Predict the 3D structure of the following.
Amino acid sequence: MPSAKPKGPSPFSHWFAIGKPLSPRSRTVLTIFSFIIPLALWSAVSYLPFLWHPDIKLTISAEREGITTIYTRGDHLSREFFPQFEAGVQAENQAVFEARESGEELTPGRRKNLKTLRHISAWGLGNGYLTPNEAKDDKLIYQLWARAAGGDFGTSPKLSPENIKVVKDNWIRIQHIGDKFSSRALPNEALLKLVPQGKRSNPVYLPAPHEVVIAGYYDLFTEQRDPDDPSMWQRALHSMKIVFGGFLLAALVGVPLAVLCGTYDFFSRIFEPFIDFFRYLPAPAFSTLLVAIFLAHDAPKIALVFVGTFFQLVLVVANTTREIDRSLIEASQTLGADQRNILFRVVVPGILPQLYNDLRILLGWAWTWLVIAELIGVKSGLTEFIETQGRWRNFDRVFPVIFLIGFIGFFTDQILSWLRVFLFKWTGETPNAFSRLVASSVSAGPRWFQREVLDQRLDPLAERRNRK
Amino acid sequence: MKFARFASRALSGLALLATLPFTQAEPLKIGYSDWPGWIAWEIGIKKGWFEDAGVEVDFQWMDYVASMDAYVAGQLDAVCMTNGDALAIGGTGKPSVGIVINDYSNGNDMLVAAPGIDSVSELKGKKIGVEEGFVAHLLALKALESAGLGADDVEWVNVPTNETPQVLATGAVDAIAAWQPNSGQALKTVSGSSPVFTSADAPGIIYDLLYVSSESLEGRRDDWQKVANVWYQIVEYINNENNIDEALEILSARVALSPEEYEPFFKGTKILPLRLAKKVWEDNDSLKSVYGSSRIVNDFNVDQGVYDEALNVESYLDPSFTKAVK
């Protein structure tokens, strides 16, 4: 009888060992993958047209006579509707041809023709012949017609054969204008319209990664279109002011109250039952009330974050206070400490490390109120941008800002978690590898502070070492 | 009569104190929102014409209904409203006086129906999304009336006007009523949707005005006159074809559209030159008069139970500022 072959360890066994932690190296690999997998999925759906792509995204557009819905470069049309749009413009060009043949040309006027010429700016922008700031300059737009008529059809988008004919036909009628372009020199007779072109794409709410990166770059690092609008960094600061303002106020009032509740049953009984009830009242329900009390600017927003955080904070911190080691209190009582000493020299230092952790988690909690808070009264901060751009369906501009909120929250938390180890050395914890990585990559400043100030001045041993 | 003299002095002192806030000239706080006739104020703001005219203004950009709420709460001295909504919030919250007629709606207020619905009568038994109790609701009801339907023949869904495009796109409703740029956004978002009824089908039903609180109007008549003067400077500028590109650039930036997307709005919002505005101020019962239009909306509001008794329309309108424009 053939004996069963003893199974050797499979190559995957160490990845799936029950109840055993992975090696630090494997852990790092998996951490990296946890970010790569969603990114890879997003890229696949964006760049592999056969997976989805139900829309046509316009690269060249045109206006139609008598129709007030104007599609511009970057707008999405369903694949079913696009041919109808295309046919509408083709029919208008056809009418121009027929009128010419009959000997009586259509004369829509110079301004209509100027607008027709401007449609080529989409082609110029796509090919990088124009920057967005130059797209309104009619002289440059005229030069684009010269360029296309000269045989440069571009690459993204490339002019379709039909549009090449349009370009050549129009150029014959406008080439006499030359370098001193002025819209008054345009003919009154109808020019042809560029026929819409587009490429397959996903719905507008799922922009491709590179579109998000480009839009994010423009919004974060270049000047905004309206100089009166706040820059993205000013918006971020404004948002942080709301979150930290509301959180700090809640902590300022809440922590002392909570420590009292956790230490004395008297305070616990007189405050906690009501707070326990109140925390179930959803903070956004107070928004109109808060606007009526604090008017429309920052105050009601900070108040909303406060209402959303305060009650939770009191209960959590009070519980933490109750969990202090009883023997510490008993020992100090035996040693004759009075009430005040027990509170400030035993209870407070005893709960500090856990209190720090609680506040870290509650800060994250405060962030979740930000978006609702910024929508009440006069909209402000990052949320106002998300709201307006989302309303105009510029989701490529919305995603970078959503990520920005995520990054700010995530990095603050990681830095706080990394600082904890140094603030509370006696707990004997070491920072976890990931927060160390994050903190060391963004915190050259605090690191210097830690090395030069905290270690030197605050560590009593260091002082002794230095004296030697 | 020592006491009487003392009292009268104290009183006049108090009266002087009471007028102080007015003489100190705080900026006039004016709420404006995303209707093409009101976005036009932006030209005066961006070009610094208010400073030139010697009046301090603080224009606050808000959602339409939020701006009326802020006005009722006393945070604004004036707000841009339709004549119907001015009566509605006057009857329930805070009265006001219209001093400048910006425009009448000539197609930019629309009832936009989902693909497959081509007329108002097909909406029977369907769902319509509107911000209930406000101007778009009025338009939708007018549309139903024109097709021989009543308010009970459809199901109403209360939707903030700026959210209507998304709501129509989800298919949760069969039609929405909204004004530009929201209505245009809905047409663009839902390929194949169409306007089945617009304010061009009922011209004069919606006038758009600047409404000022009576307290502010009483204390600072001269300043409000300057605001009215600047408005007609703006109108003259817009109506000059040479300025159109620059005007479009300023106006479209306010609502994050491109100039070419904005241009068609001019057709659907008839911004009134001074000559025509003076005609609209003439008091008669037709829709060509702001008085006639307001009276019709007044009756409508009573019918709809917005308020119980008809209001005195005349007290909501003051043509003297337009007449005094230099």
Remarks:
- The two ends of chain A are 78 Å apart (CA to CA).
